[in-house]
Amino acid sequence: MTARYGFTATLTAEPGSGDRLVELLLTGLDEGAPGSSEHCLVYLVSRSASDPDVVHVIEGWTSEEDHHRIFAGEAAQAIVARIGGLLAKEAEYTDYVPVHGKAAF
Predict the structure, then answer these.
(1) Strand runs (DSSP E) across 2-53, as ranges?
(2) CA distance linking residue 84 with residue 43, whole number of Å
(3) Distances (CA, A) of 6 to 17, 28, 93
(4) Do 3 and 98 form a contact (C-beta atoms < 8 A)?
(5) C-alpha R_g of the chain
(6) pTM of the full predicted structure?
(7) Cβ atoms of 93 and 8 closer than 8 Å
(8) Residue 52's beta-bridge partner residues?
(9) In 10 A of CB 40, how many CB atoms?
(10) What is the mean pLDDT of each run of 10 residues along the chain (105 residues)?
C-alpha cells in the first residue's frame, strides 16, 4: 500500500504531563486502535529534544477519506478525548501528501 495522505501534529502537554501524553498516544497502536488499521501506514510518536512536554506525531494513511473514517470511530474518539485533558494548548496540525521515503523500526 502507498501513503497518499498524512499529517504531523505538535502537541504540548501541561507541564510534567509529557510522559502521560506519550503513553496515551502509543495506545493508538493497540489492536482495534486507529494506528493498527491497515490504512494507517505510518504512526510515529516523538518527543522534542529540548522540551519533554512537547510531543510530535507523524501519520501516513492510504487516503484522507480512510483517515477521517477511522478517526470518526469510537476507539479514536476515546483517545482524542483523553488527550484533550492533557494539553496545555491547542494542537498544531500540518497536512501533507507523501511523495516517497522510508519508515523502518
Answers:
(1) 5-12, 40-47
(2) 19
(3) 26, 16, 10
(4) yes
(5) 13
(6) 0.91
(7) yes
(8) none
(9) 22
(10) 93 98 97 95 96 97 96 94 96 92 74
